[in-house]
Amino acid sequence: MRAVDLIVKKRDGVELTPDEIRFFVQGFTRGDIPDYQVAAWAMAVLLRGMTAGETHALTLALADSGERLDLTGVVPVAVDKHSTGGVGDKTTLVVEPIVAACGVPVGKMSGRGLGFSGGTLDKMEAIPGFRVDLTTQQFLAQLRTVGLVLSGQTAELAPADGKLYALRDVTGTVPSIPLIASSVMSKKIASGAQAIVLDVKVGVGAFMPTVPEASKLARRMVEIGRLAGRNVVALISDMNQPLGHAVGNALEVREALDTLAGGGPPDFREHCLHVAAHMLVLAGHAPGLRAARASAEEALDGGTAREKFRALVAAQGGDPAVIDDPSRLPKAPVIEMVRCGKGGYLAEADARLIGMTAVALGAGRARKGDPIDPSVGIVVHAKVGDRLRADAPLYTLHASDPEKLRAARQQVAPAFKLTSRAVQPLPLFYRTVR
Ligand code: URA
How many CB atoms lie within 10 A of CB 43? Predict the structure, then answer.
């Protein structure tokens, strides 16, 4: 078998066999197949697509490129969540403590921000001292003792996905349904998740722009999970505007802390409770969504979720004092609030443009491995559908210097559109795929 023949086959729209896919992934993992051939193959997949059988084979090949974690005996049911990536998506920081506080242990391996979308690891590292580089042994020990872990993916887990994702990020091959589905599901399968809630984002700030495309991605992932014997539910959620208000690492941690303290933006709180309730049902903690929702609300409003988060931060070397005093989080030196300028209804708060501006401010990376500035970002004060007066605050920029602030103001201004006619608020969720 030669890599070039498999590229040509895919280019010409011919279905690859499971053996061919395994050969390709194994060759890539070992370093026998060079990046340029893998990039060409990924582009052929993006343009030609993959059958359900090919996507399943690719998922298993990626999952088997490294070790598979076995969590049986460590937790009663290994339940996990995964978001396909969004702007202002700090859901994990609230959902996982809620679920853990309900008595369902969660060990999550998260990623870093890529492109305009943020990453949980970058957000957690905004907490002074917080370490995400746990070994598998440390991960398992903390899961047993604390019941909550938020770490980076170990190098041994689905390493081929890490390499492939980095290549896709720089070759325009991220928004492909089979590539996203296999990437997400390979990590979940390798990390031992038996029950998985997928938060599939749709809209201008997501990789899937329309609900039909997001639903197709969701169905593909649910089906892969079924074939691998995992219980999967996918929630299609809105990503046309940022989730909550804050975009940027320390700003998002602060918003998550507000939410864990019983406050926070209503849309974000609602989103977290809905995802947490689905996780609790999948874990068998509650017979149905209504009971699960009641448990989740109790954990959030009764403060037990906040205490779980405190235990998590302490266990991973972070400064637990930030929980009571978020002013200890990194702060940007230059802050400017921008008002609406004219009255009306907020018709658009373009999540992609806001995410890209946050990246340009230093909250994300232009290239893998670039350093980030945890303090910078944007706080959007209004939601689509809100009626605003001319002097109402629209957004606040947090920048490292006046020059970056000026550039960000110019870049982000077109993200906001106000109209004189009433605008419907955007839904939080569109549908559920089981
Ligand atoms: N998240 C992933 O883990 N992989 C993708 O390909 C896209 C989003």
Answer: 18
Q: Regarding the domain with residue range 3-49, which homologous superfamily does it belong to in the CATH classification?
A: Transferase, Pyrimidine Nucleoside Phosphorylase; Chain C (1.20.970.10)
Q: Is 254 labeled as catalytic in the residue annotation? A: no
Query: Distance between CA atoms of 254 and 38, rounded to whole angstroms?
Result: 40
Q: Does the beta carbon of 152 lie inside 6 Å of ligand 1?
A: no
85 lines ligand 1 (CB under 6 A): yes
| The pair of three-digit structure tokens given for residue 379, joined into one six-digit string | 């706080």
The answer for residues whose C-beta is within 8 angstroms of residue 372's C-beta and 6 or more apart is 113, 122, 249, 362, 363, 364, 365
Q: What tokens appear for 314 in the block?
A: 């302490």
- Give me the catalytic one of 10, 112, 168, 398: 168
Q: Where in the chain is the domain with CATH 3.40.1030.10?
A: 79-326
- 195-202 vs 231-238, strand pairing mode: parallel
- Locate 29 and state its tokens: 């993992």
User: Domain 330-419 classified CATH 3.40.50.1820?
Assistant: no
CA distances (Å), origin 28, targets 22, 61, 62: 10, 11, 10
Answer whether CATH 3.40.1030.10 is correct for domain 79-326. yes
- The pTM of the full predicted model, rounded to 2 decimals, is 0.95
Q: Which of 81, 176, 184 to mutate to test the pocket of ligand 1 (most atoms within 8 A of CB)?
A: 184
**Confidence grade of residue 368 (pLDDT, cut at 50, 70, 90):** low
Tens digit of each residue's pLDDT (9 = 90 or more) over 277-314 = 999 999 999 999 999 999 999 999 999 999 999 999 99
| Ligand 1 mean position, distance from CA 308 (Å) | 27
Pinpoint the residues of the chain covered by CATH 3.90.1170.30: 330-419
d(CA 329, CA 376): 11
* Of 336, 333, 328, 323, nearest in space to 378 by CA: 336
Q: Is 203 helix (H, G, I), strand (E, B) or coil?
A: coil
* Cβ contact 132:297 at 8 Å: no
Going from the Cα of 215 to the center of ligand 1, the distance in angstroms, rounded, reads: 16
pLDDT at 10: 98
